[in-house]
Amino acid sequence: MAENCNNDCSSCGKNCSSRDKQSLIKKPHELSQIKKVIAVVSGKGGVGKSMTCALLAAAAQSSGKVTAVMDADITGPSIPKMYGVKERATGSDLGILPVVTESGIQLISMNVLLENEEEPVVWRGSLISGTVMQFWTDVIWTGVDIMFIDMPPGTGDVPLTVFQSIPIDGIVVVTTPQDLVGMIVKKAVNMANMMNIPVLGIVENMSYIKCPDCGRKISVFGESGVDALALEYGIPAVAKIPIDPELTLAADLGKIESYDGVLADFMKKITE
Ligand code: ADP
């Protein structure tokens, strides 16, 4: 039993022996089929977590897997824009149907439910967690081989609820070189370890820039420490994404699915 236990597993993340892990896991919609779930997390916002999630799903979809994205970043939903999705989700008495991106990825996000996507979501944590859970229980996901969940940043209330309520097979941690220097990314890795969820891979975003003239790699924020971190924590897969103005443009234009397969090998490693 954890120190200072108040016997309320719903407010605690510790994976101690007295916890009945299965009891907190929620079933998806009865018409859904979802084989594998990978959560994409980061220690803080603005490191490129959503972009990595969108790129991973695009790589999975183009490799022939039926792919879905659940945008659990309720207050900062940016995935629909990156995919250029303008439609709104539809529903029936049976449940909510996700929107489908150009390449066929099934997607649900707060922004495809709001009438006006510029409307802010000013909600308390419990309401946000409840909405994420509805994305799992009330949305009809069809024949999904792999679902990527774009988690809210950090280790707060919402990620905790998601980790405890959805059967997550593994997580991918997204970081930047500056972030690695601090403790923030280690907190995210330790949170996953506490919850007994394997860390499948780590993505260092904005790892370097490539000189447009000579092609030399320049480590803007100093030499990468991601390989050492992966070794320290026994994380099997590592990817490095450069700062690339074409990637920014692809995201802004809603064309991220046609950006080259920068995460194709990484995606294969973490899903095999
Ligand atoms: P987070 O989800 O961590 O808050 P996002 O994935 O939304 O961050 O990224 C924020 C923005 O930063 C993106 O829309 C994109 O314009 C830019 N960005 C992220 N990574 C890169 C990169 N490697 N190269 C160029 N721009 C990037």
Keywords for this entry:
272 residues; alpha/beta; Rossmann fold; 8-stranded mixed β-sheet; binds adenosine-5'-diphosphate
Describe the protein's architecture and organization.
The protein has 272 residues and is α/β, with parallel strands linked by helices. It has one domain (33-271): P-loop containing nucleotide triphosphate hydrolases (Rossmann fold, 3-Layer(aba) Sandwich), CATH 3.40.50. Helices cover 31% and strands 18% of the residues. It contains 10 helices and 12 strands. The protein has helices at residues 21-24, 49-62, 79-83, 125-137, 157-165, 177-181, 184-194, 226-233, 245-252, 264-271, and strands at 34-42, 67-71, 90-91, 96-97, 99-100, 106-108, 144-150, 170-175, 199-204, 209-210, 217-218, 237-240. Strands 5-6-2-7-1-8-9-12 form an 8-stranded mixed beta sheet, with helices on both faces. A hairpin with a 5-residue loop joins strand 5 (99-100) and strand 6. Helix 2 (49-62) packs across helix 10 and helix 4 runs parallel beside helix 5. The longest helix has 14 residues, at 49-62. 41% of the residues are buried. The model has no long low-confidence stretch (mean pLDDT 88). Bound molecules: adenosine-5'-diphosphate (ADP). Adenosine-5'-diphosphate binds at residues 42, 45-51, 78, 205-206, 241, 243-244, 247-248, 251.
Brief write-up:
It is built from ten helices and twelve strands. With 272 residues, the protein is α/β, with parallel strands linked by helices. The chain has one domain: Rossmann fold, CATH 3.40.50.
